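Sample intake — Ectoine hydroxylase-related dioxygenase (Phytanoyl-CoA dioxygenase family)
Collected from: Spirosoma utsteinense
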Amino acid sequence: MTTILSKLKAIAKHTLMPDKVSKPVTSFEPGTLPWIDKSGADIDSFIKNYEPAQSLPYDLAEKMKFWKQNGYVILDQAIATTWLDQLWSEVEELIENHEEYPINVRIDLPEYAAHPVMAIKDVPKEVLNGPYIKFLDFHDNSVIAKKIMLHKNIVTFLGAVFGDKVIGMQSLVFKYGSQQATHQDFAYVVSEIPSHLAAAWIALEDVHIDSGPLFYYPGSHTVNKFNFGNGIFYNDKSTLHPGDFANYLDKVCLDAGLEKKTLLIKKGDVLLWHAALAHGGDEIRNSTLTRKSFVCHYSSSKAYRHHRQSPTAEPVRRTINGADVFVNPTMPDQEDVFTVGKTL
């Protein structure tokens, strides 16, 4: 539990929080929900007027209806494996020559609990190459990571869900399964409109049942929100903790008759999920097995207007497929230092 708490505090430290209010927020504000989450959302009518829907390798209307009911969709073979191989080769370069890079990692090990976020150059190679390591916001540094994050197959769908331009907020790359307890992302990754949040889990290799695969509860995006004692967002003032959150979600999903599913997908497949989908990482039953993954979080243009490291400055933008990602204002010299993606 110590490592989970450290991890989530580290996330909260680097996340925009909503404006202060006089009383705790206990649910998403109905008036600010993405249109598809509101009652009476007419997906068929939306699709007729959504021009990007005409050039996708999947049926957008079908996927959106599935999303509304289940809180997730799977896009089969959505990303070219050559792009994924290039991304992972860059991660291996980071590990091999880590002294050369100021890029940050998060380490979810007890001995690093006091300082879970560190510059990669200050972390031993054997630690970087093991479990409980996440490379933070590598899309800042890599052209191919940006192209994958803002791939047309992903941002066209999320643009339809938000009804707005998509903004890539943050990303994680990791080699081994997270073994994270059940949670919902909105409690930790918060934009200016908390309901305007979605995520992508991109498989960089085929997933094995014993590698600690991701699990999720279809339909759980509609269950009542958990109150940490000071509202639905976890922070230093919360009186309840991630363990309480996990127990609540497992119980409320069980009581609602929601089935827990395990995600066993192939390299190049993408899972997209709703801000409130309950999910986590299963136990790694074979420590020799990896689960190489690229996870990205997204918001909308109206809900994420500034980089979380500089919440009052106008961001410098990179635009791909009509979606934006902001240049990291704290490390501008490290932006796009991995350039091979320009040729792919």
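Post-analysis note: The CA atoms of residues 192 and 303 lie 5 Å apart.
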